[in-house]
Design goal:
Two copies of one chain form a homodimer.
Chain A: H1 13-21, E1 27-28, H2 65-77, E2 87-90, H3 93-104, E3 110-114, H4 119-127, E4 131-135, H5 143-150, E5 155-160, H6 174-185, E6 190-194, E7 219-224, E8 236-240, H7 245-256, H8 261-272, H9 275-302, E9 306-307, E10 316-321, H10 327-338, E11 340-341, E12 343-344, E13 357-361, H11 367-386
Parallel strand pairs in A: 1-11, 3-4, 3-5, 5-6, 6-7
Antiparallel strand pairs in A: 2-8, 7-8, 9-10, 10-13, 12-13
């Protein structure tokens, strides 16, 4: 009596890893968790009088008007001109993935994604019955060329994470975004850009969103406050092409009426009073230092066992192992024997890939934990490769 | 390039009515809104030290463990024995409807609902492609008999609101619940009981949930804190048969990872410290008085134009008009000319119904506004019937 889609609900492996990673004494390189001391603590006492009382009744499905204005201004300043009327407030950007899947996916629909890409997007698209095509394996070719190879005439949606991608850390240049957008404009599909890491730029600011270069294709762009303020607030946003916005708004209403109002007023206050940029200025040096610490540790312990790029932003290193290896077994042994949690690469691939990869988060553990954890990872990997 | 389901997204009529109903100067009988002064104002300062800081990181998809324990204890005390492991915390119970629709509905699936029933459930079931069958029109027959008439061999889900139903206000007796459960146990379907109004009982406590009488059928039961604390907190819960719970948990994870943690600690505190029963003891007399005021006003102004039952709980009167009438036109004229908002009955029917009905909420307006609003409704209805 269950719907067919329930057979497509993938295993809870990732849930299990993340749950194990939060056990006491485990060094977690697994999730995309902010450092505990980098979480934004809202100052409830500083809220205007009556702000809480005004947030207790049912609210608009679109989100709080003042927060929508703040988001539109922020995105316009980042190079994506938009109005508050195009902004929909979400319970974190995972909800945007659910809404866009409802908007555009039904069984058999072809969806083109980067491969590797964000695993929870793959899970959601598969749940709705998508047939996934992946692109991104020919590392010598520019993104537009790789995209073109993956595009089929019946592709109706593409999901892109052009800025400090999860898991690869890749960031497309300004000209690569222009070329990709021009290519996408030639096809009849929806472009869905997921951009939760934009503000976590450690070297130079990220180029404007890819969708800002589109002339024809309808698009949805989304971001999140989870990585730059606090995930527990469960707040993200999307902004959509005017042709798509009314559908997404109705889907949001059907999903849960509206987002949490208390979180909305807290985040709106953080934007209105300049607390967000101040918080970012405080956490960016912490994350940059952890990234650099992990780069050093990787070079020292794993230089002969894997290759990687230094990520210019975001939260992850993506390692391609020099030899084929069962990364699921590596993950299990490492967690059990060494109390270190990593993410195997397999779940991030839309289509099977010959490479053995792992993803390492650098934001949650401190420099000492990072070095000790990477050393244990190297030891475990050597043990596994000898057998 | 949109999914077929987008064609089934019903019109935004209800959104428009509810938006108009919140305009200044409008007396709203439209939504199921708590009275402004009956909203629970959380005492943020009274939270244990560190409670807020502990709610900023990612949390479990199931919900906060302490809140799940509180909900399980509360439901067990109400006659539905369950464990915390069966409880899933939701962003309001609208989310439970979305999750159960994903669990059990695909295009062409037959779903049996009471008719009339909660319109947003109908919208969500239709979005997922359900073919709806309705039961409940033969008012002289007991519920089990009426149900049996609507059941088809290919019905795989039934959605029930046995306690102070929205919109009808009906409440099944203990023996009617037993008989209905016995009938449902003979069929291969999922029983979905939606119970947001249980605690708003003005005369006698409601009988235990219908699903507590099931022996065979898998079930999902859900409730909400929106009507008894505050809708802006966006918090509800479901409890499910162990065979269904793991699927619902994964669907929740795919939908938005987890619910807002700040609201969860506030509601958990209200349950742990006895603030919820104290708040209920304060608001029940207010709502009882408003129900009785509306009953008086209806009798005085509309006694010859409609019939209704006094609701023993919940938030609504359901009026069947004595003469056929275009209730959409009534709604529009009343809002425009008299600044009174009501809900026409049509959207609550799963299948077209010959009766002309309207739903009136009695919790939001005060007694004076209720009497003036009902008088204007009566006048407008007489005008309409004369044309």
């Amino acid at each position: 009596m269950l719907a067919e889609r329930i057979n497509r609900l993938t295993s809870s492996l990732v849930r299990d890893i993340l749950a194990a990673a939060s056990s006491p004494g485990v060094t977690s390189f697994a999730g995309g968790l902010p450092a505990e001391h980098a979480l934004f603590v809202p100052d409830l006492a500083a809220l205007p009088a009556g702000a809480l009382a005004g947030a207790l009744q049912y609210g608009p499905s679109e989100g709080e008007p003042a927060l929508r204005e703040q988001v539109a201004a922020m995105l316009s300043a980042q190079g994506l001109p938009c109005t508050a009327g195009q902004v929909l407030i979400l319970n974190g950007s995972q909800q945007g993935i659910d809404l866009v899947a409802k908007l555009a996916i039904e069984p058999g629909r072809r969806v083109l994604v980067e491969s590797p890409t964000y695993l929870a997007a793959l899970q959601s698209f598969r749940l709705f019955g998508a047939e996934l095509d992946g692109w991104g394996s020919d590392e010598g070719m520019p993104p537009a060329g790789r995209l073109e190879k993956g595009l089929r005439t019946d592709t109706r949606l593409t999901y892109l994470n052009p800025t400090f991608q999860n898991p690869s850390g890749a960031c497309y240049s300004h000209s690569e975004r222009q070329a990709l957008a021009a290519e996408l404009d030639c096809h009849s599909l929806i472009v869905f850009e997921d951009d939760p890491y934009r503000d976590l730029a450690y070297d130079t600011p990220a180029p404007p969103p890819l969708v800002s270069h589109l002339q024809q294709a309808p698009w949805v762009y989304q971001g999140s406050f989870s990585k730059i303020l606090a995930p527990g607030l469960r707040l993200g946003y999307l902004v959509a092409h005017p042709a798509l916005f009314p559908h997404l708004l109705r889907l949001k209403q059907a999903a849960d009426l509206h987002s949490n109002r208390l979180s909305q007023i807290l985040v709106c206050d953080a934007l209105q009073t300049g607390k967000l940029p101040a918080h970012l200025a405080r956490i960016l040096p912490v994350y940059r230092a952890r990234r650099d610490a992990m780069a050093d540790s990787l070079q020292r312990h794993l230089g002969d066992l894997a290759r990687w790029q230094l990520p210019a932003g975001g939260l992850f290193f993506w390692l391609t192992l020099a030899e084929r290896c069962d990364t699921m077994a590596l993950m299990r042994d490492l967690l059990k024997e060494d109390r270190v949690a990593i993410m195997p690469g397999e779940p991030f691939f839309a289509v099977p890939d010959a490479r053995s990869c792992i993803r390492l988060n650098f934001s949650h553990a401190d420099a000492g934990q990072i070095d000790a954890g990477v050393a244990r990872l190297a030891g475990r990997l050597r043990t596994l490769l000898c057998h």
